[in-house]
Design goal:
2 domains, twelve-stranded mixed β-sheet, 35% strand, binds 2-acetamido-2-deoxy-beta-D-glucopyranose
Length: 495
């Protein structure tokens, strides 16, 4: 009897332990695009295939490396096969018609070689099959207008979509997602409504969306909230957008804010940098390298915990009092950050139990201890409003950031330069949205780095639990208030 119970208890303990430590091996490829000098000469299908060949060859090479490391899933970037600089007509020779895997079973690698115009799909499918891994890629899909009397049908008789595709380790197409929120991509059409696309693997359920989609409610948050997706694959072509939206900065913030594993693969070229494998607890691995020079791509691999559902720390503690009266001797000033006019107060001392600044309905608070270097100016900023520069979205932001130089008007201008070490910093605010994204960025010899210390983020309060080991660039909580997007969320980004 005793030994039997002991056995059961041990087995149960073992299962619990195994359950808790279940991991899978993820890989993302930051891909240094290999493109000929000009796109304009591509007129024929043959030219298009020659144009994409160096990139597909590189995917093949990297996938073979991933295979030797037993990678389960490999994500490649948006526009990683044909680049970004295309018009509606010039991209046409590249496009392929990609079937809907919900309705047809399609394995291009094993399908008849006679099927025309599926060369890129076949190649990707074979890369997945050859290396026994899930492969996520991004390519252009041409869909004939099948709906009769489709009054929106472009005059050429088809739609062109920026499309993510996923192949399973057999090479079968298992997911197809048409990018919802385009960013100056006149070569593509927006789908009539946002698609929630998921795929199942032995290591959890995944959702897929791309680049600018991350800023909007659908499908980014509906995949997590409505479908309980705990993992996202995210092909992107994301440009450096300090102080709040550098790739590694905001993508890690999304993982932590939504409580998901987030596999972000970026292209690598002038002004486009930063990929990573992020978990709800921070980056498992990330890469940011803006050194000028050829190459610079990188295959990132990490073992991360299987998430059967999101582990989101829901919301914002609305009950937290804001009314603590502060002596109002702080000098307040205005300055632009990310093209939005913030209210700021300067950090004057090496320690504060509480400083505060408000903008519209948002009040932001911070407490900190820091060794503020002479010449370094830091400021606490608040913004509550509709962002209108190159795209419309409503956000509420609380930030402590390093100003570009000692002038007040430089607060919010992008900078990678800082010298001051913060022992700790806590930021909270009176956000009126549960969609909050925490991020801490540091300066690493003129480059940027994510806080490697464990951050905590509970009830909308961002806290560094350990002294930051590098000078602080910014510590920020971004709130997205989708309900105030003013109906422009689906609209094409406009200048
Ligand atoms: C691209 O242009 C540069 C300079 O004009 C030239 O040296 C190089 O050979 C060209 N590369 C290709 C692939 O045509
Ligand atoms: C598949 O693997 C074989 C043998 O390693 C290799 O010769 C071939 O190029 C690979 N093809 C693809 C598409 O990865
Ligand atoms: C399509 O439009 C034509 C002309 O407007 C109309 O006669 C026809 O009934 C429509 N067909 C369908 C299926 O709606
Ligand atoms: C691959 O194909 C085999 C045979 O059809 C099937 O049993 C297996 O589930 C497939 N694997 C995946 C990952 O889809
Ligand atoms: C950074 O990129 C440069 C070229 O762009 C490359 O030479 C260097 O090896 C890269 N550094 C790392 C750490 O990968
Ligand atoms: C301070 O930074 C701002 C914004 O980057 C810049 O326009 C200004 O010239 C700088 N001032 C000095 C004194 O360096
Ligand atoms: C912040 O750091 C300082 C200096 O290390 C320490 O004295 C203080 O207790 C810390 N405060 C919090 C809230 O951790």
């Amino acid at each position: 009897m005793v030994s039997r119970w002991t056995y059961i208890t041990l087995t149960m303990l073992l299962c619990v332990e195994l359950g808790e430590s279940r991991t899978f091996r993820a890989a993302v490829l930051e891909h240094a695009l290999r493109l000929p000098n000009r796109t304009l000469f591509v007129r024929s299908r043959e030219q298009a295939l020659a144009y994409v060949e160096p990139n597909l060859a590189e995917f093949e090479r990297q996938a073979a490396i991933a295979r030797t490391q037993d990678v389960d899933i490999l994500v490649t970037p948006e526009d990683g096969i044909y680049g970004t600089a295309h018009g509606r007509t010039t991209i046409r020779p590249f496009l392929e018609t990609i079937p809907d895997p919900k309705h047809v079973t399609w394995n291009p690698c094993t399908a008849s070689a006679d099927i025309p115009n599926v060369d890129v799909q076949r190649r990707l499918s074979c890369i997945a099959r050859n290396n026994t891994l899930y492969l996520v890629a991004n390519y252009g899909d041409m869909q004939p207008c099948s709906v009769q009397n489709d009054s929106h049908c472009p005059s050429v008789g088809h739609y062109q979509y920026n499309t993510d595709i996923v192949f399973d380790p057999n090479g079968t197409l298992i997911a197809r997602y048409h990018k919802t929120h385009l960013y100056y991509e006149y070569q593509f059409d927006e789908p009539s409504e946002a698609e929630n696309i998921v795929f199942e693997t032995p290591f959890g359920k995944f959702g897929v969306f791309t680049c600018y989609d991350i800023l909007f409610e659908k499908p980014a948050t509906s995949l997590v909230n409505d479908l309980g997706v705990g993992n996202i694959v995210f092909p992107t072509a994301w440009f450096d957008a300090l102080p709040f939206f550098a790739a590694v900065e905001f993508h890690s913030a999304f993982a932590m804010g939504m409580g998901v594993n987030f596999l972000a693969a970026n292209i690598h070229r002038h002004r486009f940098h930063g990929s990573g494998i992020y978990t709800p607890d921070g980056a498992a691995v990330y890469y940011y390298n803006d050194t000028v020079g050829s190459g610079g791509g990188k295959l990132l691999i990490a073992d991360i915990e299987v998430l059967d559902k999101p582990t989101r720390r829901l919301g914002n503690d609305q009950s937290k009092p804001d009314s603590r009266m502060l002596s109002v001797d702080q000098f307040e000033f205005k300055s632009y950050a990310f093209h939005d006019l913030f209210n700021f107060v300067s950090l004057r001392d090496s320690h504060a139990d509480e400083i505060k600044v408000c903008h519209n309905a948002l009040c932001c608070h911070a407490k900190y201890t820091a060794n503020i270097h002479e010449g370094d100016r830091y400021a606490l900023g608040a913004f509550d409003g509709l962002h209108t520069y190159r795209g419309h979205f409503y956000h509420q932001i609380c930030t402590v950031l390093k100003c570009a130089n000692s002038s007040y008007s430089s607060c919010g201008s992008p900078t990678l330069d800082a010298r001051s070490i913060f022992s700790n910093i806590t930021i909270w605010g009176t956000f009126s949205t549960p969609y909050l994204f925490p991020e801490v960025l540091m300066s690493d010899n003129g480059s940027l780095a994510l806080a490697q210390t464990q951050l905590s983020f509970e009830n909308g309060t961002l806290d560094t639990n350990n002294p930051l080991d590098l000078p602080l660039l910014s510590a920020t909580v971004i709130g997205r208030k989708y309900s105030c997007d003013n109906g422009t969320a689906k609209q094409h980004a406009v200048l």
